[in-house]
Amino acid sequence: MSIYINESSGIDGLSTVGSADKPFQTASYALFAQSEGNSEPKLLVFKKEDNEYQEISASALKKAHKGAEGLKKKALKQKELDAKKQKQQAENAARQMAALDIKIEEDKSLPTAHRVKINKAPEFVGQRVKVYGWIHRLRNNKKLVFIVLRDGSGFLQAVLTGDLALAKQTQELTLESSVALYGKVNKVPEGKTAPGGIELAVDYYEIVSLAPAGDDSFTNKISEGADPSLLLEQRHLALRGETLSSIMKVRAGLMKAVRRVYDEEGLTEVTPPCMVQTQVEGGSTLFKLDYYGEEAFLTQSSQLYLETCLPALGDVYCVQESFRAEKSHTRRHLSEYTHIEAELCFLNFDEFLNHIERVLVKTIDYVLQDPVAGPLVKQLNPNFKAPTLPFKRLEYNDAIEWLKAHGIENEEGEEFKFGDDIAEAAERRMVDTMGVPILLTKFPVEIKSFYMPRCKDDPRVTESVDVLMPTVGEITGGSMRISSVDELLAGFKREKIDPKPYYWFIDQRIYGSVPHGGYGLGTERILAWLCDRYTVRDCSLYPRFTGRCKP
Ligand code: 4AD
Question: From which residue to which does any coiled coil extend (predicted)?
Fold first, then answer.
């Protein structure tokens, strides 16, 4: 039998017969296609030079046989693969059918499950519990489904096995769905780790609300490391992430700690108003509002109100939002921030400074001792060093000399001189170089607020202080307060402020004036320092700054 081969007009395919009108393209394929036959075919190859078919040469035939063997093997392999695929498809279909039939039901013969929060679950090893939460992580190995459940108190690893894992409902679970898991709390085997050292062997679960899959799935809306402006747009979802939620827990720990310290220091908490008609820290950063037709502002600081509380309640403090229309975008300025402010009476400047450093050291100690916040600070900021007493004290004038000596320039790119504001960049370079907390004191009258008294030994400067911390710079600003009416009126005049709306504040200096002082702690700045965050925006629940007032 003769088989025809034509390299240029032939086709290697199942429909080719190998006749002179329908030749194969290659000798290998021709042999492969004829391999079922009994006799060896005669191969005729078209020679272009002679324009005719001639019998194949011995060497070409040998090569063709080799090629045909290769093609045979390849075809066999493909056949095997096809069969495997078919089997798998059949199995999947069977599993899906079976999954449809699986009913997720609680086995009533099991012990009643204790309702627990995740942070308490390690106390229930060996017992059956019920835990509500959100699916934080989900890994599906078909026969085993791993869930990391989050309930705000912690994270719990849970495993679903057997029919529970195979059920259609389980296969369709999604991240951020809310569920109630039932099961036995087990210690994780030696060498394995899980939050709290435990794992929940789930025997039953209920879906409270299923989160969407596909285009609207949680991971499509937000993913870690996404563009910061997108993360801010989706802040309500981003807050569910481990980092932001940890910072918010440290924040709660900080609030608790500072209230405990103020209680120990004998201060009373008050709640001054946010809607005011006076300024504290300069007109340029006031947020104006129409108050029933009268001009009013969102408070820049509760200081003036705290001062009025002294004769009524003694030393006081507040935790209140302050508002600043800061036009520039910086890593440490917000338009709204949580201001922890304190006001103390019958004390001198030195006692005042001692109080501030004591409050800061004790507060940080309490945060680190807190069973929730302490470990989170370690996690977020492993190198954090708690400050110790006493802080380095540096007068403004000496700071200017230090900046000059270190070649650090002012905002105008010139050598620092007395009277210059030490702006953010220079301040940070100074405190980062010194590497310790600094009480920077005695700022010139001209760069500070109207209410700050002059130092008796140098009337060019005030009894004022900024507390600077490495990595963030200023976290606290405060001062003693002018206690004489005349000096205060001169301050108003210097700052071109009409004293009329301040009649109540001036009265403070008329009805039993006393030496007093106070300060404000920037909550978000303390947190940025404590949690090692680049920006204070990470430390506010819903940060506000120019261009952002939502969500
Ligand atoms: O230094 P400041 O402006 O001081 C006052 O408002 C005083 N009246 C407080 C007082 O004596 N009761 O602000 C105090 C602190 C700063 O050290 C800083 O930590 C924080 O408040 N702060 C801000 N935090 C975030 N965003 C802003 N725009 C801030 N402005 C000040």
Answer: 73-103
